[in-house]
């Protein structure tokens, strides 16, 4: 009797492992990777990162919680949380940056070909004040690639 119960327990565990592996494979197959390139003409704050002027790429997986921002020379690397996602099928494919004096801060990344806009909400009182009093918003063109 014990051997039969033990064999049943092993079969249940094996089934659970196969089921979990199948779900993970399906999720990976459905995940979309986005890669984009852009050039910042000025130092820019993006979340907790400060990016010097230069060429960059951003890579994000639709199932991940963060995106990887990397400079073309590989010296600057940062992670930014995936922000609020909104539907978008209009406007420029661009990184929108708010400007207040000499400070530049990423506000959103619009990807109409993907049907999405990624909005980075202000998280501190200083960022909220900057958004309310921004002198202007600049659009930095983005070139996308990926599945």
Fold and architecture overview:
The protein is of the alpha+beta class and about 150 residues long. Helices cover about 25% and strands about 45% of the residues. The protein has helices spanning about 1-30, 125-130, and strands spanning about 35-40, 45, 50, 55-60, 65-70, 75-80, 85, 95-100, 105-110, 115-120, 135-145. The protein has a 9-stranded antiparallel sheet with strand order 6-5-4-1-11-8-9-10-7, with no helix packed on it. Strands 2-3 form a two-stranded antiparallel sheet. Residues about 10-30 have low confidence and may be disordered.
Q: What is the string of helix and strand elements?
A: HEEEEEEEEEEHE
Quaternary form: single chain
Helix % is 25-40%
Number of separate strands? 11
* Beta-strand content: over 45%
Q: How much is the average pLDDT? A: 75
Please list the strands of the largest sheet in the order they lie side by side: 6-5-4-1-11-8-9-10-7
> Any idea what the radius of gyration is?
21 Å
> SS-based structural class?
alpha+beta
Measured distance between first and last alpha carbons: 53 Å
Number of contiguous helices:
2
- Biggest sheet: strands, sense, closure? 9 strands, antiparallel
Report the principal-axis shape.
Answer: globular
Contiguous low-pLDDT stretches (5 residues minimum) are: 11-30
Offer a quick outline of the entry.
The chain has 147 residues and is an alpha+beta fold.
């Amino acid at each position: 009797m014990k051997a039969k119960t033990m064999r049943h327990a092993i079969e249940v565990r094996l089934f659970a492992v196969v089921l979990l592996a199948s779900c993970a494979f399906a999720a990976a197959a459905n995940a979309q990777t986005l890669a984009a390139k852009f050039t910042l003409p000025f130092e820019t704050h993006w979340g907790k990162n400060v990016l010097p002027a230069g060429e960059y790429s951003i890579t994000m997986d639709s199932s991940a919680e963060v995106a990887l921002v990397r400079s073309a020379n590989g010296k600057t690397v940062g992670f930014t949380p995936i922000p609020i996602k909104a539907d978008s099928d209009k406007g420029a494919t661009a990184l929108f940056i708010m400007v207040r004096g000499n400070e530049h801060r990423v506000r959103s990344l619009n990807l109409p070909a993907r049907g999405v806009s990624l909005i980075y909400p202000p998280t501190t009182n200083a960022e909220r004040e900057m958004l309310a009093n921004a002198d202007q918003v600049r659009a930095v063109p983005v070139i996308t690639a990926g599945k």
